[in-house]
Amino acid sequence: MVVSILVVDDEPDVALLFRQCFRRETRAGTYVMHFANSGEDALHLLRAGISPDLILSDINMPGMDGLHLLGEIRKRFPTLPVMMVTAYDDDERKRRAGDLGACDFLAKPVDFAYLRTRLSQFQAP
Known about the structure:
globular; alpha/beta
């Protein structure tokens, strides 16, 4: 089974990092990675028809931040899982993300071993 992942982050290095860290999995067809550099871009991609199995979103972005994006996703795509990935590892943001329906909260720098474990839960047995 192929798992489609939308990564939303305004830092251009994040796309490169994810491409490098999941190079083997994308070549093998395990993951398909999509990237958006803002909340607005992510919503545009979703409306345009990509249907990820999971969204990984930064919180601190210009324009629509990740928490606002999470709220919009909940309204429009209520069953789509969203993990928040952020450099801000504080209790208030975790609480707000949880209240808005985030399925996980990952601190930067990303622990890719942990992320791989979490992503394996989105694959068929």
